[in-house]
Amino acid sequence: METAYIQPGTAEELHESKDGDVVGGWTRVTDVRGEAHRWSEDHTLIVRSPDGLTWGLDYQVGLTEMQDHEYPWRGTSGPVALTRMYPHVVTSTVYRTEPPAQPASPVDDDGSICG
Questions:
Q1: Which helix (DSSP H) or strand (DSSP E) does residue 83 occupy?
Q2: What pairs with residue 57 in β-bridges?
Q3: Least crowded by CB within 10 Å, which of 50, 63, 74, 97?
Q4: % of the chain at pLDDT higher than 70
Q5: How confident is the model at residue 40 (pLDDT cuts 50, 70, 90)?
Q6: Handedness of CA 25, 47, 80, 67 (dihedral sign)
């Protein structure tokens, strides 16, 4: 597993920024919500390094006012480890109340092929 490192302050700024923002040469791509547990929810902050590679930083968010967020970049003075991430295109099916639009027929009313 490949690892890269960033400074805690850069991680904090990327977390607080919006998708597409650049902080210290690193670009925030997105924040992926993961599995929800009883008191917390997993997240992965996805960032792009100055050389164009994609990296992830895992953290947890407390789900109630009594739970603390667990940010690996807080409370440390050393660099924070990122894990190499690879994009995967996934096709998904969504369900709606209206039927899907029908594609145009390749055949005209007289039976000839459109074109």
A1: strand 80-84
A2: 45
A3: 97
A4: 81
A5: confident
A6: positive
DSSP string, 75-95: T-SS-EEEEE-----------
User: What is the C-alpha to C-alpha distance for residues 14 and 84, in angstroms, rounded to an integer?
Assistant: 16
Strand duo 26-36 + 54-62: pairing: unpaired
Residue ranges of domains in the chain: 3-84
**Among 49, 47, 67, CA closest to 57:** 47
Structure-token pair, residue 35: 């599995």
Q: What is the pTM of this model?
A: 0.71
Q: Given this model, what pLDDT does residue 67 score? A: 61
Judge whether 34 and 61 are in contact, CB under 8 Å. Answer: no
User: What percentage of the chain reaches a pLDDT higher than 90?
Assistant: 37
- The rounded distance, in Å, linking the Cα atoms of 49 and 55 is 7
List, as one string, the DSSP characters of 29-68. Answer: EEEEEEEE-SSEEEEEEEEE-TTS-EEEEEEEEESSTTSP
